[in-house]
Specification:
alpha+beta; 8-stranded mixed sheet; 8 helices; about 20% helix; disordered N terminus
């Protein structure tokens, strides 16, 4: 009975949160795609040639999502064996990088960057916390909450990850918007350190150029638990020039009950786009939600940071100064996801750590 209740709760969470998440993140205007929605049985259209987001946006794409884990070796092994990722880099965090993140105690800790062989963006960076790691349930604290990853065949994922340290939690399920055919099909997993991973297949457009040769591509969206909502949204939407795809109100009754917030209240969410088919989803949560526990001098456990690839570091610096958001600079770093250029790091209005690297 307890297991059934847990599965039902997970299913409700999936249908309410993932539906809206993916609506804003991927879907463009409704297409004429037809046929079965089972993976591999739908006729896909070529990606539309019109701009997917404002070409003038300061943000180009998500360069990497950073996950602070208990063991880098265990995480790399799971992602290599389960997802077919390769290790783009492994080493020790420099003093300069640790201080840049305001995590000076992490200098010398192991870190690694993994991702599909063909991609240099949408990567995942693991940083080791060791004994400072604290497993925290996703979407119960402010900040970055989950990584969303493109796949060609979502129905293959449970079999592909069978026996893996990446655990299946829900789906696959079709996601249907309005009266048209289902647009997406998605499945949920958790990584070795409890990080939520949402694998998503587009049922309308052929996204394979964005994925590479294998089934699993890179990170295309990060979700952010936000309080205050408006200031957090506007940092990405107005200051960084990302494009609003959708904004909606949704119930968060389970979170409200757990946090002692007002039951029945509706909360907003927005999906904001970057030109290279990437998005940030901002989810408003009750004001009773607190910051993620974080040992002084360390990154928070779990999904800890989003690295955005930008057109100009100096334009980003000016935008942050205009809204009184302090930042730190890193002169240069050749380790991925850096590309040998300068970088900025700041903390957003919901406590989220944001890193900017110049294209």
């Amino acid at each position: 009975m307890a297991n059934d209740a847990a599965k039902n709760k997970n299913r409700r969470t999936f249908t309410k949160s993932a539906l809206l998440t993916l609506l804003g993140a991927i879907c463009g205007p409704a297409s004429a795609a037809s046929g079965s929605t089972r993976s591999g049985q739908v006729r896909l259209q070529a990606m539309p040639s019109r701009p997917w987001a404002d070409p003038a946006s300061l943000v180009i794409s998500i360069a990497a999502g950073t996950v602070a884990v208990e063991s880098v070796a265990d995480s790399v092994r799971a992602y290599r064996e389960g997802l077919g990722y390769i290790e783009h880099w492994r080493g020790k965090l420099s003093v300069e990088t640790a201080e840049f993140w305001d995590a000076p105690e992490m200098a010398g800790n192991t870190a690694a960057v993994v991702g599909p062989p063909e991609l240099q963006s949408g990567l995942i960076r693991f940083v080791e916390l060791g004994s400072e790691f604290r497993r925290v349930e996703s979407h119960t604290t402010l900040g970055w909450a989950a990584l969303e990853i493109r796949v060609k065949n979502v129905d293959a994922m449970p079999g592909q990850l069978a026996g893996s340290a990446i655990m299946h939690t829900n789906g696959p399920a079709d996601l249907k918007f309005g009266s048209g055919p289902p647009s997406l099909r998605a499945v949920q997993f958790k990584g070795p350190s409890g990080e939520p991973l949402y694998f998503t297949q587009d049922l309308q457009f052929d996204r394979s150029p964005l994925i590479g040769k294998q089934n699993v591509g890179g990170v295309f969206l990060q979700t952010l638990v936000a309080v205050p909502y408006i200031k957090t949204r506007d940092l990405y939407l107005r200051s960084l020039g990302m494009q609003l795809r959708v904004e909606a109100s949704v119930p968060r009754s389970g979170v409200a009950r757990q946090s002692g917030a007002e039951p029945g209240k509706m909360y907003r969410m927005a999906s904001v786009r970057a030109p290279e088919y990437n998005s940030v989803q901002i989810d408003e949560y009750p004001g009773t939600i607190g910051a993620r526990p974080r040992t002084p001098g360390y990154l928070p456990s779990g999904v800890a940071m989003c690295t955005l690839r930008v057109r100009s570091i100096e334009l980003v610096a000016a935008a942050l100064q205009e809204i009184d958001v302090p930042f730190r600079r890193l002169a240069s770093n050749s380790v991925p996801p850096y590309v040998g250029t300068q970088a900025l790091c700041c903390v957003g209005f919901s406590g989220e750590i944001i890193e900017f690297v110049e294209a």
